[in-house]
Amino acid sequence: MTNITVPLRDPDTVMRLSRLGSAHAHRLSFMRVLLRRLKRENWRFSVERFNINAQGVGHAVYLAAGPTHTYALVAFAHDLPDELRSDRVIAEAWDTTFCLHDGVPSDDDIKRLAANVPKQEAGRISARELSLSRANRSVRLFDTVINTLANGQQPPAESLADVGYLMRTTAVYGSGKFGAADRDSICDRPEFASPFQVELLNVYLIRAFTLDLVEHMARAKGGEQAVPLDPELRRSLGVGNSTGLGMAPFLINHPRLTHCWIQARETALARVRSLPQTGAVEWNSFRRYVRRAKYNADTWHSEHSVQIPKIQSLRDDLAQLNAHLDGFDWHTEQPWNALWLWAESALGLEAQEQLAALLLEPHGELVDELADTLSTDEPFAILDAHGTVGGCVDWLTTHYGWALGIDHQPDSTRARFWYVSEEKLEPRLGERFDEPGAEREQPLGISWQIRQLARDLAQVPADNTLADFLADFPEHRHTVRRAQLAARYPYMEVRDNLLDAEMLPIDLLRVKLAFFGANRFDPRSDRWLRITMFQHAPFPHELASQAGDDWCYPQVANA
Amino acid sequence: MKVSQGEVEAMLRKAARGAGWTWGYAEELGASVRALEASRLPGIALGASLLTQADLEHCPIRLAARAADTGELPAEPVLLRCPLLSLPVLAGSFCRADDAISIAWPGGTASATDFDRVHCDADDLAIDSQPVPVNFTRLRSHSAPVAEPARNAITAADSDWQTLERFALGSYVPASEQSRLGAGPTD
Description:
The complex is a heterodimer of chains A (559) and B (187).
Chain A: H1 11-14, H2 17-20, H3 30-40, E1 44-52, E2 58-65, E3 70-77, E4 96-102, H4 107-116, E5 129-137, H5 142-150, H6 157-163, E6 165-173, H7 197-222, H8 231-235, E7 238-243, H9 250-253, H10 255-274, H11 280-298, H12 307-326, H13 335-346, H14 349-358, H15 364-367, H16 389-399, H17 401-404, E8 416-420, E9 427-431, H18 446-457, H19 466-472, H20 477-483, H21 505-516, E10 522-523, E11 529-533
Parallel strand pairs in A: 6-7
Antiparallel strand pairs in A: 1-2, 2-3, 3-4, 4-5, 5-6, 7-11, 8-9, 10-11
Chain B: E1 2-3, H1 5-18, H2 23-38, H3 43-53, H4 60-70, E2 78-80, H5 87-94, E3 100-105, E4 108-114, E5 117-122, E6 132-139, E7 154-155, H6 158-168
Antiparallel strand pairs in B: 1-7, 2-6, 3-4, 3-6, 4-5
Helix pairs in contact in B: 1-2, 1-3, 1-6, 2-3, 3-6, 4-5
């Protein structure tokens, strides 16, 4: 039943940085889409080889066999001196390096990969590799856990919960980078139809390898005395990730994809809100998820000055939500919509977006199929210049009112510029009036570009052809081409000024990470943050016997 | 070296930008080079040469963009360098149903039914030569089969790729201490 009687939320509401920066993981998040598929299709997982010595150095191959293809995580574990460990993209050595190979690798493949994968960006992989990644140990936890297990004891749950991972990835590259297979060449495979499934399968297998590595090193150290990690403690560990500005331009550079993700989620929300009634099963399930989300918020720690008040407001608002639910009559007509409308006026952004995710939880049958709408092709868009200048002005008024309404006068509104560093070819954010390089800025300041375009269009007679305008102002070709997508892709633009002095890049990072499936965000500055992936998820060997999709929120007793 | 199609498009875009092209034309070059490579034609060599020749007056991308914008193919021959590079945008813009755009220059002919379905029959692609006169024709109900675009990796000549990397440097900003704010070192 997919009758939608409630409108999808307006892009002017949804696509603001402050709300994007309050996004939470949900049923359509890519990690969850992946695990639902792996379980549904009975993927078989095995360790093809584990040639790692007592010091944790060597290589391993983990296989994931689906209905039509088998994939292999090829893992290389190194002996990295502490002083060389760095999460920066400019690092040159790591504790572990990986690739995801298409098929079962031969010995020759392993030799080739051993010569290239540990070099990461400085090496080349082939079209038979789908992704390249690396991970570093958690200095706080890795050795402690090994030593504790070696002594026959379990590490205290709180010490694990504090960090949440034993290793963190510092980059996971797919989609044709460094020689890997292009997305085009694999996107017809059903398992890769949804976004980032390759990269997330890579990370899911890294998690399995990491825990096996730790237990292996504990056994090597403690011999018979050593114990494996308790299964629940094991599951409480995810794979950490340091995400910085490298990911920030993605949403801007892939407007059609951004639209699809947001539209899928908004459609899911509208479907649930449109339901004319609900039942006790869904209601009780929802209440349990709210309690789990509250527990998640209560145990979510950050030391960042922006995040601390957001977490506090989330906790307060979820307490308020619980109180409201206690007195709420779910037999009322369109109960989810009634609840949503109350929340829009009563709760802050973090709690609203958390609620938007929670409303989807009891409704898998209604929303999970929308995972098929997350991906889209991004063919090169031919510019349509057959109209007039006046027609273009009207178009901007209709679709870019948000940009035209931004005041670009003060210097602070153009304080930043986005660029790619020569040092390591990574995206960075500069201060326009304090640093060199603004003449080489990347075209990510969409609102500014629209403003410049509108200003130049206004100087020209409205019945001039757009073709002649573009011949005189070729610098606007890029913007016009982009703007022409807006009618078909209403959620494509981040509707805020990305050059502003007050802009927080972590807001861009957060919405993308929420769509990946992370649900605890730990900013370390205004432009990088830590998350944990697959925390509480079943391991590959547990997928068959455990629920595949009930791990997004920590379990709470009596929930 | 082997490069993915995505890398080809991105590199040409950065190289063109680094060479001083506007982003719009840089994108059109990147997409056109990729489209030619997907059609199993030497797009990378053409792109590297075009940027090296630095001749805006005889630029196939600008010509194609103007024709696409106005909806009018040149009626008279036009002097162009690397004429193949004009085809993807022309085909993407003009071709409907069974249409094809065909170009002819002293070294050969080529036609395209879509952005990345380009067929070429030429002894000389005019990669490095002086501008050549190019004729444009629109063919209705074109029937010559054109192969499916290739999806796999592309082999780029090292010298071409190095040329492009040199141009691309012009689109990057050299590091300064101030610019090194990013992901922190460790836990």
